[in-house]
Amino acid sequence: MTIPVRHAQSPIGSRMIINGREVDYYCGTSYYALHGHPQVIAAASDAML
Which residues pair with 23 in a beta bridge? Predict the structure, then answer.
């Protein structure tokens, strides 16, 4: 059995383009797009100081 290779052509988010198709993406840690939220970035920066 082989596992199909999937190629993402867009940034990780709740909607992605994978193998040329726009799909809902529930598998990543960025489903809610919190990785780019200003408050999350500020909190992470403060936590590392």
Answer: 16
* Rounded-to-integer distance, Cα 35 and Cα 17, Å: 18
Residue type, 10: S
Residue 22, number of CB atoms within 10 A of its CB? 11
Best CA proximity match to 6, nearest among 27, 32, 33, 36 = 27
Residues paired with 17 in a beta bridge: 22
* Res. 36: pLDDT tops 80: no
pLDDT 10s digits, 1-25: 788 888 888 887 778 899 999 999 8
